[in-house]
Amino acid sequence: MTPLRLHRREAGMSLVELMVAMLIGLIGIVIITHLYVTNEQYKRSTTGIGTAQINGAVALYTLERDLRMAGYGIAHSAALNCSCDKPLCSPLQYYYENKSSFPPAAGAGGALPARVVAPVAIIDNPGGPDQITVLYSTANERMLPAQLQEDATVPLYDYKVDYKEGFRAGDLILVSDNAGKCLLKQITGVQDKDSILEHRTGPFNPAASFGPSDFMPVGSAVFDLGAPVWRTYFVGANKLRAEEVLGQLAVGAGAAQALVDDIVDLQAEYGVDDGSAGALSKAEDGIVDRWGTAPPLDPADPTKVLWQQIIAVRLGVLARSQNFEKPSTAGGPCEATTAVEPWAGGAFTVPGGLPSCYKYRVFETVVPFRNMIWRASAP
Prior knowledge:
Number of domains: 2
Radius of gyration: 32 Å
Order of helices and strands: HHEEEEEEEEEEEEEHEEEEEEEH
Strand content: 25-35%
Structural class: alpha+beta
Oligomer: single chain
Helix content: 10-25%
Largest sheet: 5 strands, antiparallel
Strand order of the largest sheet: 3-4-12-13-14
Distance between the termini: 131 Å
Number of helices: 4
């Protein structure tokens, strides 16, 4: 019987044909995988840069929003003149829950940290991020200070002012004698008939504070701070953070709030209006003459800062992408960033140095202090 002969097209695929088909399939898989990996790398890089763009813009906006309000309610020479002439002393004398600044505390040990009354104070940190502290009032009804009509004397050292409107119980007030002595007190009551501001025992008013250190002469200025915004911005653990200066008294150090991720450097400079730009410039004419990290000092008294000559701040923010980008060669040097664009005030500090396996974006701006430019002078 003759064996059945199958047609060649009905006999199936040979081993060689199967191997060729598998090879073609594997080549296709390799190509598709390579395209996917490459596309994923581009996607990660693009997403990381987009996130850095957003984070940097939000960080700059957050800083700029507060800086534009800097000096509101204290843009007056009587408030900006707070000073002291003792070692380790605080230009602003204040108290909180059984602790005082120095003076009037007996000594520097255990005293509250020294504080200055300034619209903006920059702590320059060469080789690292700077710190910026902003101060302004929230009392919308008192843009100008009241004046003491009588000496603040025994037994309670209450403040009789020329005009009580705008002051409310619970408001913090800054009292300046125009000669450098400044006290921070909290209003506990307002006597409408006699225009007297009481500051009896409370968190910011010690029970035993009624004494010579509380004396303020007639003519002293009384500034209503309301619940002041007194906030320090800094970079920590690659985040823009903020800490409330007065809030820190209640909750302790280390209570900073993280605001924006992937911010790795913050730089700032004062815009100083001191008349140093040339023969045609003059001090306090509302034009920035120079930029610097140190506040201007009084030539006649180098221990005194001329806060009224600071009318702007120049900011630089460095934002980093979220995604770590691997070098093209395993174990090779990073290639994502070999150099970071400088800002107007100089260079940034990149964590870990360059080259870096992260990408960066630079943001900068200049913020004018309208409250300082339009400030009032002492009577």
